[in-house]
Amino acid sequence: MSYRIGIDVGGTNTDAVVLDESDRLIAKTKTPTTEDVTGGIVTALEEVLGDEFDRTAVESVMLGTTHCTNAVTERRNLNQVGVIRVGAPATLAIRPLLEWPDDLVGAIGGHTTIVEGGHEFDGEPITDLDETAVREFCREKADVVDSVAVTSVFSPVRDDHERRVAELVREELGEEIPVSLSSEIGSVGLLERENATVLNAALTGVIREASTAFRTAMDRHDLDAQFYFGQNDGTLMGVDYAERYPIFTVACGPANSIRGAAYLSGLRDGIIIDVGGTTTDVGALSDGFPRESAVAVEIGGVKTNFRMPDLISIGLGGGSIVREEDGDVSVGPDSVGYELESEARCFGGSVTTATDVAIELGRASFGTTDPELRDELVAAVSDDIVERVERTIDEMKTSAGDVPVAVVGGGSILLPTELTGASEVDKPDHYDVANAIGAAIAQVSGHVDRVFSLDDQPREEALAEAKRLARQDAVEAGADPDTVEIVDLEEVPLSYLPGNAVRLRVQAAGDLRVEGEET
Amino acid sequence: MRELTSEHIESIATGAAVLGTGGGGDPHVGKLMAKQAIEKNGPVTLLDPEEVPDDALVVPSAMMGAPTVMLEKLPRGTEPVEAFEALERYVGQEAYATMSIEAGGLNSTIPLGVAATLDVPIVDADGMGRAFPEIPQTTLTLGGIDATPMSMADEKGNSLFLETVDNAWTETFSRSISVDMGGSAMIAIYSHTGAETKAHAIHGSLSLAEEIGRTIRTVDERAAAPIEVLAREFDGHHLFSGKVTDVKRRTTEGFAQGTATIEGLDAFDGHELTLEFQNEFLIAETEDEILATAPDLISIIEKETGQPVTTEELKYGYRVDVLGLECADPWRTAAGIELGGPAFFGYETEYVPIEQRAATSDIIHTPS
């Protein structure tokens, strides 16, 4: 028998599960997330493995972590980034990092340049790449920057200039310097793609530290297993890949919940509601994977456009504080958080929480004392919670008609088993550790998001190339080539432009490659 | 005369998206260009049309082409200035001021960057009072002003001139040149005199955009719904409230055409609104009556925040309010209706001024 361990680090709790070969749950635990993140992970591993467990039977460990997210929001441990934009004489009107919060610019050093080069929408060069300017910038910043972010105009159409800049940077600053290329990270929309690329470059040190710390934690438990990071689309990436694309870990938590809920409920398409201690995330499941957001998403105050799950977050969770003022009842957005077991009425505390209301409604039975709430208050709070959730379900749907809903997360007790807009409401077993299960069952994915000109090549050829690139990307990320399948393909004609341009977005996914197997 | 700072530019960009009636391109890039130019050169002087001497030269500046290209190939920043200065050289006269060609979307913000960079004033006026897709669709055309001589400039330093027999030919030629320039170009166009600004431009456009934007940005959600505040303060009509239940899109000859369906909520419960759009929102009608058509302005705002919603953003589940604003008077002439009314866009609907429709409507709410 061999086992897999899934770990999900959340804002309040770190969850861990052990699954066997047939994905059966062998053990699960929930432990408070620690400030250094790693401490909570070590504890979770301790609790989930115990003393008896045969460590040698653990084949792989999957970690969904907030290390990178926290580093951006807290502006901590970020690299000094050399920001190279290739686009002059175009793009000079708006300098890099113009819209960034000052403290975040300060944290990454604000080292920027714009050099000549880049392409038109049809792939023709705007002008030659100014290699001398790239070299000069590198020499000037050689002692200052830890990593480099490169963004070239229309690189989703042609990435030659970005690749050449990467070569030049390595010649000047050494083979080891991490270089992030925008064409590998975001899509069309220069400023948002550049922002995502710079954040990625800022995080390469953080992800290395996280990975080293996690290795240490595994060693302490005598675990000699393959190790993967969870990413935003609910799939996994190997450590090498994660070190190149740390930004893809920032929304892995909700993505894992969606995948875990899909697995536990058997749903392939529908709405997933993850009720936590402070917030509720509502996401959509599309063919077993989280639906991607189509709009720019802000991270740490910066607009970005790389792949993120489409989510609506509402300030409602098990610990949400209930208030009554002048007959008006409100729930959240503030929460007692991890202090539920000392502050909430059902545990003898003095704060009325959403959990107390759920107990009065008979949706849960735990705690040490009767919350003793008035019926009108209970009814008002319950109506408010249900209305907000139903409204969010409606916003997440893409068409009229009821859809199946699965509810997971520790705060699932807040919700009834019937909701308007839902054809069914499923609260599967082990709902409380759905995110860790989502991490443990994840597959490995690959992506391509590029503009192809159908004047240059027939449509079938462009499709085949896009699929090939997505598969290749999945294999590079650690997938077994024999199991990789195309799971999503979107074709958007860009009709306002000549050249018969079409944007192809392809996602491929496959099972984890078993250790020792060559690609 | 007054000064516009970065803070004013923020409000103008938000308000311009309302006056853009769902189209006109994202004001974001133009806003950032203007803010960067103001950061470097100081605030912009805004002139009332009455402050412009009759014989002074006014040279409007704008961007044309695919707004999506501008989101990737950002401008150099100098090309709107080059187009502006090239036109000055061509007509042999120094410009007294610049102006916006359209009050909606991206082009409300582009001339602000020119004004800041060259330290020339900008006139508080525009050539539409809203956004429209084609070059001849301006009140300046209605006033008999030629779009040419027109200059076009790209980021590489190329600039060229057009002299055409009428404004329709200006559209034809400049559209294909903008493609050769990489999908977008900066232009100076419709140069005219101060007397003509007073007679044919729409006055107060930037101030109006700024006020609308400031109202949205400071709206207190608890006090009143944004739609109520906007309709009351800007002589507007609350046409509809509801949830978007369907959006159908089709692409025909480069225009993003579509139909959106909105199911009524609150006071509009039991009704359904159909919205026709082609870049901009053009016709709003329920099962029983037409509520508004172009050239009157139909804007969609997000119910809770009042933030304008573009035709591209519209999708199932959005809760929105529909705001109707009266178009500028020149659009209500026979020539104006021909150039900016439903028939121009291929619809058989007749144009009736929005306030006349409101007076007989059971559904439109007009605050007094």
Outline the structure in words.
The complex is a heterodimer of chains A (519) and B (368). In chain A, helix 1 packs across helix 6 (190-220), helix 2 (67-73) packs across helix 6 and helix 8 crosses helix 12 (434-441). In chain A, the strands form 6 sheets. In chain A, strands 3-2-1-4-9-10 form a 6-stranded mixed beta sheet. In chain A, strands 11, 12, 13, 16, 19 and 20 form a 6-stranded mixed beta sheet that branches. A 4-stranded parallel beta sheet of chain A has the order 6-5-7-8, sandwiched between helices. Chain A is α/β, with parallel strands linked by helices and 519 residues long. Chain A has helices at residues 38-49, 67-73, 102-108, 131-141, 160-173, 190-220, 239-244, 252-265, 340-343, 354-360, 375-396, 434-441, 459-476; strands spanning 3-9, 13-20, 25-32, 58-64, 81-88, 111-116, 147-152, 179-181, 226-230, 236-238, 270-275, 280-286, 289-290, 297-299, 302-304, 311-314, 320-325, 328-335, 403-408, 422-426, 444-453, 485-493, 501-510. Chain B has helices at residues 6-19, 28-41, 67-72, 79-91, 110-118, 139-142, 167-180, 194-200, 205-217, 226-233, 334-340, 354-360, and strands at 2-4, 44-47, 57-65, 97-100, 122-126, 150-153, 159-162, 184-188, 192-193, 202-203, 237-252, 255-264, 272-278, 280-286, 290-293, 297-302, 319-325. In chain B, strand 11 (237-252) and strand 12 (255-264) form a beta hairpin. The longest helix of chain B is centred in the first third of the chain and has 14 residues, at 6-19. The model of chain B has no long low-confidence stretch (mean pLDDT 92). Chains A and B meet through helix 11 of A and helix 2, helix 3 and strand 11 of B.
